[in-house]
Structure formats: C-alpha cells, structure tokens
Design brief:
mainly alpha
C-alpha cells in the first residue's frame, strides 16, 4: 500500500481502496507522525477513531494552533466508543483537553470541551454526602439550653449573654476544650465570641444540648454561616449536615459562590461534590460569566494563610475529579461503585 505524503490522501477508486485493517494502520501511523491532514482524510473514508489516534491528532493540531481542525476533532469525540475510555484518556487525554481549555479561551472550543467533560462524567448521579454519626460522650437535658440555672460558663455573643455548661462543652470538641482551658478559676467563666452571630451560636448550642441535628430548623439564609461556625468549633457531624443541605439546594446560580465558600473553609467533601456538579452541568455553566471568571481569573493574592485551599487551581481540581470519576466508571474492578 502506498500513501502519499502530501497534504491529502488520494484513493482514486473504491475498488482500489486498501482493506479497512490497512487503513486503520495507516491512520495510526499518520497520527503518530503528526500528519494530521492524512489522518483526517482517512477518517473521512469512514475509518473509526481510536482514542489514541484522536488524541495524537488533537495534540498535533493544538501544537500547530489549527483552531478549525481542533473544533472538528472535538466535535468528533462523541464517535469514540466508551470501551475506548482507557487509562490513556486519564493520563494523556484529560491533561491535553484541560490545557486547551486553559489556553484557548475560545467560546466554541470551551463549549465543545464542556460537552466532552460532561459526557465523560457520565449520566450517573453525583455521589451523595452522608451524615456523620456523632458519638455522644455527654449530654444535658435541652431544658438547660441557655438556662442560667447551674450554668458555669457564659458566652458573650453580639453583646448578649448565652449561658452554658462546661461539663457538656469540654467533651464536645477540641476547640471548646481549648476555649475553656486556661481560664481563671472563677465561679463563672465569661468568653466573648466575636465572629459568630447570636442566632447561629444558638443553633450550635441547640445541636450540642439536643444531641444531634434532628431538632434543628435551619433557614437557607443561615446554612452557610452555620457551616462556618461548625467548622470553627470543630463539630464534624454538624458541618456535614450543613454540607448536605448545601448539596441538596445547589443551583447553577448559587454553585460558584458556594464553591468559593467551601474552598475558603477547607470543606473538602462539599468542594468535591460541587466539582462533580460543575462537570455534570458544565454545558450550561460555561455560558455564565461567574463560572467563566472562576475558571480563568487568577485568585486574589491576599489569600488568608488559614485557608491555603482557596488559591488552588480550579481547572486542575476539575481534571483530578473527572479522572477519578472516569476511573471508577470505566476502569475500576467494581464498576458499580461510582465516585
């Protein structure tokens, strides 16, 4: 078989066409050697893409900055069979496609890549967050909630007193234990809480005195502040409960702000859930200015030292999340366990 090394592959008559196996081999070698025009000509004869030839062609077009061919190749990704989703897609495909997304900032290409990422993420639901069962070490009757009776510690929140009991708080979390330690051995300790609103602090205490989240009535306007307070007071089960509420109420309008807040707090489980939401809904989100800014605008340099995660690379995080998802669906030995 002779292949012309010019700008096109000429097969004059169908009767003279090489058998399909030879064409596949020719397509493979032309892609390997960067002869993308020949590869695409062979493809036009009906020879199916393999993931490898598609990726090599895309890489060549990206290096050569051939935008129309990149768009054509991205459109053709849907022709690749899912059983072709091999380790190469994770190790070579995703880094290349996210690099194209990062550098091109072309609306058509961004939209096409969003379609591919959503397709790779798959139709399965985003894995749900699950409640953490709290190990109750000590408990008081809810009657004692903010009750001065037998109270031996007073919190000053927004200038108002909140009465509590050390016996409960000392074992509630390391944070409360630290707050209570090294205080004067007075009959009643007074501790000022300056960064939490009174109604939010009341919900934190209600959670502790009632022994769980069952009795809590959390408004949508309160859930983010309660999440922050739960994180600060190191109450993991309450934090997870707030994260679950957030995950159930997420929308395309709220997801970006929610992600920034979760990232700022270092709430890794909620952050991972929202990254899944981004990938599953990326075709819609890529049209929204807030999401595009999140992807492309660098984070502010004056990021608090207490929250190192806020400066991480969102595109790199999405790539890792998608890689994990593809692996669990297509490459895992237990393909039923989607993550």
């Amino acid at each position: 078989m002779v292949i012309a090394h010019g700008h096109a592959l000429h097969l004059v008559q169908a009767s003279q066409a090489p058998p399909s196996g030879a064409l596949r081999e020719a397509m493979y070698h032309s892609a390997e050697h960067g002869h993308v025009d020949i590869t695409i000509d062979i493809r036009s004869l009906g020879v199916p893409w393999t993931l490898h030839t598609w990726l090599e062609s895309l890489r060549t077009c990206f290096i050569q900055n051939r935008r129309p061919l990149i768009q054509g190749l991205l459109k053709d990704f849907s022709c690749i069979q899912e059983d072709e989703y091999t380790e190469e897609l994770i190790t070579h495909g995703l880094p290349l496609m996210f690099q194209i997304l990062r550098s091109s900032k072309n609306e058509v290409i961004s939209q096409q890549l969003s379609v591919i990422f959503t397709q790779c993420y798959g139709p399965f639901p985003i894995p749900k967050l699950t409640e953490i069962k709290r190990k109750q070490t000590s408990r008081l009757d809810p009657h004692f909630l903010n009750n001065k009776e037998m109270s031996d510690v007073t919190f000053l929140v927004e200038g108002k007193p909140f009465y509590a009991h050390k016996v409960l708080l000392f074992t509630a979390s390391t944070r409360f234990k630290t707050l209570l330690q090294n205080r004067p051995a007075a009959e009643n300790t007074c501790i000022e809480i300056s960064h939490v609103k009174y109604n939010i602090f009341h919900l934190v205490m209600q959670y502790l005195y009632c022994g769980g989240t069952e009795t809590l009535h959390i408004r949508n306007t309160e859930v983010m502040e309660l999440l922050s307070a739960a994180k600060f007071f190191q109450l993991e089960a309450l934090q997870r409960h707030c994260e679950i509420i957030c995950s159930k109420n997420i929308t395309t309008e709220t997801c970006v702000d929610l992600y920034k807040h979760a990232k700022f707090l270092g709430a890794s489980e909620l952050t991972a859930f929202i990254e899944g939401y981004f990938l599953k809904n990326m075709v819609l989100l890529i049209e929204l200015d807030g999401f595009k800014q999140l992807l492309y605008e660098p984070p502010p340099p004056e990021s608090p030292a207490s929250s190192p995660g806020i400066c991480s690379d969102i595109l790199l995080d999405l790539e890792k999340t998608l890689a994990t998802r593809i692996h669990s669906i297509h490459l895992s030995t237990s393909k039923g366990s989607v993550v």
